[in-house]
């Protein structure tokens, strides 16, 4: 609570700046450790929603340019809080698929910028979250085998400077679905196959399950959990357990 602001936002540290990354960090840690309460995230949903701009993506704070890292953080935080349906999902989908560049196959962080390997996760990682949200709304035209981006093109080159997020994005590109419905698309040799990563937390799904199992044995502060949180690591839709420093570029 020491970094929570009256408008629902969070600062990155005591005396630090406000942006949507800190809201995601707070929601991620609170959900995994089972300490989400209504008071902790009061007005946070509305603050994050105000970061979605006319482009369709989310900015770091309300009124600025949409950016891949901030868009992932804001969207993932709303998924954790069970409020992702309040976004303009179609506008967000249109924005993120427009960030994959046809020639390189990779993603840019924002309009009119160069492709950067770290956005293999920040941008491509949004697609499982959007797939999940649209699936819950009953979208009938969603694929049952592929995410909504060109998975093969994303695997054809890598930026080793951003190894973590390149590999995270590569994992998203290789794995579709969850425990009930799983498809893989591995480019090249079988040795290229990576372990799945959870599209909300970007850690292995089994580690998410272990953390939730451990901390759910402990009491929740104030005796209340905010409805819809934490994100269900065992949902039956294709993205819930996907086999699948923000960098300004």
Automatic annotation (TrEMBL):
Keywords: Metal-binding, Prenyltransferase, Repeat, Transferase, Zinc. One of its GO terms (molecular function) is metal ion binding. Residues 227-249 have a biased composition (Low complexity). InterPro entries: PGGT1B-like, Prenyltrans, Terpenoid_cyclase/PrenylTrfase. It comes from the Eukaryota. Its cofactor is Zn(2+). Residues 2-203 form the Prenyltransferase alpha-alpha toroid domain. One of its GO terms (cellular component) is protein farnesyltransferase complex. Coiled coil: none annotated. The keyword Zinc applies. Residues 218-249 are annotated as: Disordered. It holds the Pfam family Prenyltrans. Belongs to the protein prenyltransferase subunit beta family. PANTHER family: GERANYLGERANYL TRANSFERASE TYPE BETA SUBUNIT (PTHR11774), PROTEIN FARNESYLTRANSFERASE SUBUNIT BETA (PTHR11774:SF6). This is Prenyltransferase alpha-alpha toroid domain-containing protein. It comes from Etheostoma spectabile (orangethroat darter). The lineage of its organism: Eukaryota, Metazoa, Chordata, Craniata, Vertebrata.
């Amino acid at each position: 609570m020491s970094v929570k602001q009256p408008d629902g936002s969070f600062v990155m540290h005591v005396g630090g700046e406000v942006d949507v990354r800190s809201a995601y960090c707070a929601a991620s840690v609170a959900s995994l450790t089972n300490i989400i309460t209504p008071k902790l995230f009061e007005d946070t949903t509305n603050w994050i929603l105000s970061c979605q701009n006319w482009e369709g993506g989310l900015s770091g704070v309300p009124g600025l340019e949409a950016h891949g890292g901030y868009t992932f953080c804001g969207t993932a935080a709303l998924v954790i809080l069970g409020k992702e349906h309040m976004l303009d999902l179609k506008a967000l989908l249109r924005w993120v698929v427009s960030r994959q560049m046809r020639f390189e196959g990779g993603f840019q962080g924002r309009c009119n910028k160069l492709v950067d390997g770290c956005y293999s996760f920040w941008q491509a990682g949004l697609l499982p979250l959007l797939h999940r949200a649209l699936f819950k709304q009953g979208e009938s035209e969603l694929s049952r085998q592929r995410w909504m981006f060109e998975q093969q093109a994303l695997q054809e080159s890598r930026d080793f400077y951003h190894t973590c997020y390149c590999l995270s994005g590569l994992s998203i590109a290789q794995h579709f679905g969850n425990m009930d419905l799983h498809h893989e698309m591995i480019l090249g040799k079988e040795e290229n196959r990576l372990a799945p990563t959870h599209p909300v937390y970007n850690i292995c799904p089994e580690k998410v399950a272990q953390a939730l199992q451990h901390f759910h044995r402990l009491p929740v502060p104030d005796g209340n959990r905010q409805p819809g949180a934490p994100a269900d690591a065992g949902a039956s839709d294709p993205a819930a357990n996907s086999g699948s420093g923000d960098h300004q570029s």
